[in-house]
């Protein structure tokens, strides 16, 4: 699917918005969405980036370089929520999207159910969700210390005796119980294989699907773009613009369990935007703790900007004194891209 849509924003004159000690230049006609929080102290983090604007990309987003900036080069990290921020999914199933935006409830629900079926089919068939559902991790590398580096090219995952949290083990084995060395090693193998699959198919998820399912996915992508008024492609404009900057990074923090979250990212065509190392699941520990992990990883000299639709990420952003950009409508996504395009974020 091609997301190279263009918007004509016209000529605008900037004005300065002050909030605590953080300043953002916003153009006339670009409004902060309701609920945006710009906390005290963020301006100090931002000064380094303003003094060295070489990594900023003006104008339309360019095709990003495949190389991610190193952690030491980073100046700004955008922490994104997934559902109802970048993609529309959960609200299709609950009916809230149809009600809020005046869409046909039956059509919207049907799209959501079909996408849900694809997500769990991919997760169960290829991403070990049957094994990992009860062994959920926050990050794909969380089991790496239990991995002995064994070659997995001929490893038989179906016959290794791993049966999820109950362990089980092969007949006669005594090390297959949950928490045992052997069991943990097998669990780590699954997460390593999960990482390899994600990296191998992040730009070609169709390679994991049957021809019939590939056709279904293409149809669902097209129909969802229509019914959501190009929500995903509008969000992608901001994601790609951030990715094109030399010293910025997109990180995903979702309340979905890690394996289905990876399936969503692949099926919605976001695999090239979010390296698997930049995807965190807050299911077990919550978003505030996820943010703590991310700050520990990248450091406190980086400016963090949180983009989301819910109270969880808004509260977590407030706790960590991070700016929060609320996404409630399609217009909020457009305004976000305008602010990014004009270098005000």
From TrEMBL:
It is an enzyme of class 3 (hydrolase). The active site is at 81 (nucleophile), 83 (proton donor). This is Eyes absent homolog. The keyword Phosphoprotein applies. GO terms for cellular component: cytoplasm; nucleus. GO terms for biological process: cell differentiation; chromatin organization; DNA repair; negative regulation of extrinsic apoptotic signaling pathway in absence of ligand; positive regulation of DNA repair. InterPro entries: EYA, EYA_dom, EYA_dom_metazoan, EYA_dom_sf. One of its GO terms (molecular function) is metal ion binding. The gene is EYA3. It holds the Pfam family Hydrolase. Its EC number is 3.1.3.48. Mg(2+) binds at residues 81, 83, 309. Residues 41-70 are annotated as: Disordered. It comes from the Eukaryota. It catalyses: O-phospho-L-tyrosyl-[protein] + H2O = L-tyrosyl-[protein] + phosphate. Belongs to the HAD-like hydrolase superfamily. EYA family. Gene3D superfamilies: 3.40.50.12350. It is found in: Cytoplasm; Nucleus. The keyword Signal does not apply. Its main location: cytoplasm. Keywords: Activator, Chromatin regulator, Cytoplasm, Developmental protein, DNA damage, DNA repair, Hydrolase, Magnesium, Metal-binding, Nucleus, Phosphoprotein, Protein phosphatase, Transcription, Transcription regulation. It comes from Oncorhynchus tshawytscha. CDD domains: HAD_Eya. Its cofactor is Mg(2+). Binds 1 Mg(2+) ion per subunit.
